[in-house]
Amino acid sequence: MPYSLRDHTADVGVEATGSDLDELFAGVANGLTACMCESVPDDGDRFAVEVTAEGLEAALFDYLDQLIYERDVRDVLPVDHEATVTEDPATGEWTVAASARGVPLSAVVAREIKAVTYSEMTVEETDDGWRAYVVFDV
Amino acid sequence: MTTREFQGIELERVREHVWEIPKEGDMRVPARVLASEPLLEQIGDDKTLQQLKNATQLPGMTKYAVCMPDGHQGYGFPVGGVGATDTETGCISPGSVGYDINCGVRMMKTNLSYDDLQGKEEELVDTLFANVPSGLGGGGVVEGDAATVEAVLDRGMEWALEEGHAVEDDLKHCEDEGVRYDADPSAITQKAKDRGKNQLGSLGSGNHFLEVQRVTDIYREDVADSFGLEPDQVVVLIHCGSRGLGHQTCNDYLRRIEKEHGDLLAQLPDKELAAAPAGSDLAEEYYGAMCAAINYAWTNRQLIMHRTRRVFERVFGRDWEEMEMYLLYDVAHNIAKKEVHDVDGEERELYVHRKGATRAFPAGRPEVPEAYRDVGQPIIIPGSMGAGSYVLRGGAASMAETFGSTAHGAGRVMSRTQAKKDYWGETVQQELEDQQKIYVKAQSGATIAEEAPGVYKDVDEVVRVSDELGIGDKVARTFPVCNIKG
């Protein structure tokens, strides 16, 4: 599993790894889903999200923030995440073009994650690829 | 001098229940922890003390950063943290208010006794659960549109009064009478407003809940009389905040601070402490947005309370007025407020950040509603669903010790991930019913496991410290009967 949920006194930490940034970002997003729900049904349609930010951490933050926003306004639990992460060499900006399957909240038992936080956020390259750590506010 | 050390951080004992981390390195002021020995052991066990030290680096921090007896690790500023910054030379820090702006607690009284309730617990918990929206995607008491959200952000509980979701007495018994006139709805983003539309009048999940309780103990009869509390009385406690609208607002401003005040942010040890310099446009905008979110949260709790009155009418077959279901008080425990405090003999206006801490103004302060000005502001401290909650009143020492603040709850000791390994929701639920006659209903069994009584600090000990320090005096204790959550 490319993500795991980590102990945090009040909130929940997600640690994810990936061979590249695409896998890493999708892994963190799948970790976010796991914080909200243990068992995901098969229904729901895919939807796309795209964010652009001034740095890699900011892009991860905005991506996760956007997923939480979509959850509330679409009334769906975003699951099965896919992401493509690219840097614009001219501006140094990072874009996350992603999609998720939106399971209607009426079809799933899920709990609320309030927000993504910057607390202890880590996005780093490792010998095997990439590693991220993100704390979510419960 | 007695000292204690946790993870390389040394604390000096100032006196009973008061510990100080002396100013060193980049700290602008010292930090204080208000705790008994057993509570200090728990506070020293995670990253609370490091986060508290970090918070002292915020510009304009005054006197000291303080950790309340229920403090624990949060993000950026610790939960249970109080920090006052100068409104002219300091800063305002959205991360030090928290994501859930004006997360808070209100208590509604009734004239019912525990005897009236016995035998009806299951019907009551089921009817509450069916009628008070909770969890993810449960909607709200009110189906809001854009105009509704604007009005709520602008006028808070005054909107609820105009629309028939409140009576005048409710406003008189709420902090700031349920409306912050500093609110600026235009400083709330469209994204945040979108999230706020379908959540108006909803509990959410996590540690938020609605609980029917009975009064078990009275500690100060004169104050309890003024509050209208007596043994065996049934009361209702509501704990929730500004929902997605508040969470989004916090993040929107964290990101703007990062982009517009990166220089200040670079000086801080944790990005979550992100702060806008006092006097900047962004500081003003955030203050206006935060006040609007505060209005939203008060209205949210009001709608839930008013809905609860209707539920009681149905279950008990009487009008809510006949059951005297009136608001005791509503307190915020994630908030920053401009307040004037005496600092070394000088009156100064400060942004008092209370993140998981409750205002605890004593008798005589003009900010305390008239109904309580002679006895002190009521403070509501929720415990876990298997332990008591407390009603305190603002203590005489709070202004000098804590910028007029005290604790906000029991405070967690165990992570949610660990709780789900140690507890099974259905088992916790059954044990509470069989052993303590507490009826719990939740959208998700995992929420019950995550919120099991064993994951919290001992609320009795937290309140004992508050009382002995004289920052919040014990008035009454309550015990759960029915609890609903997300």
Automatic annotation (TrEMBL), chain A:
Residue ranges of every copy of the Archease domain listed in the record: 3-138
Domain of life: Archaea
Coiled-coil regions listed: none
PROSITE patterns: PROKAR_LIPOPROTEIN
GO molecular function: metal ion binding
InterPro entries linked: Archease (IPR002804), Archease_dom (IPR023572), Archease_dom_sf (IPR036820)
Keyword Metal-binding recorded: yes
GO BP terms: tRNA processing
Protein's UniProt keywords contain Glycoprotein: no
UniProt keyword terms in alphabetical order: Calcium, Metal-binding, tRNA processing
Family note: Belongs to the archease family.
Protein name in the entry: Archease
Organism encoding this protein: Halobium salinum
Automatic annotation (TrEMBL), chain B:
Keyword Nucleotide-binding: yes
Cofactor note: Binds 2 manganese ions per subunit.
Reactions accelerated catalytically: a 3'-end 3'-phospho-ribonucleotide-RNA + a 5'-end dephospho-ribonucleoside-RNA + GTP = a ribonucleotidyl-ribonucleotide-RNA + GMP + diphosphate; a 3'-end 2',3'-cyclophospho-ribonucleotide-RNA + a 5'-end dephospho-ribonucleoside-RNA + GTP + H2O = a ribonucleotidyl-ribonucleotide-RNA + GMP + diphosphate + H(+)
GO molecular function, one term: RNA ligase (GTP) activity
One Pfam match: RtcB
EC number: 6.5.1.-
Keywords, in A-Z order: GTP-binding, Ligase, Manganese, Metal-binding, Nucleotide-binding
Positions that bind Mn(2+) 2: 239, 333
Cofactor(s) recorded in Swiss-Prot or TrEMBL: Mn(2+)
Active site: 408
Top-level taxon of the source organism: Archaea
Top EC class for this record: ligase
Binding residues annotated for Mn(2+) 1, in chain numbering: 100, 208
Annotated GMP binding sites: 207-211, 333-334, 382-385, 389, 408-411, 485
InterPro entries: RtcB, RtcB-like_sf
Quaternary data: Monomer.
Its biological purpose: Essential for tRNA splicing and maturation. Acts by directly joining spliced tRNA halves to mature-sized tRNAs. Joins RNA with 2',3'-cyclic-phosphate or 3'-phosphate ends to RNA with 5'-hydroxy ends.
Entry's family note: Belongs to the RtcB family.
Protein name: tRNA-splicing ligase RtcB
Classification of source organism: Archaea, Methanobacteriati, Methanobacteriota, Stenosarchaea group, Halobacteria
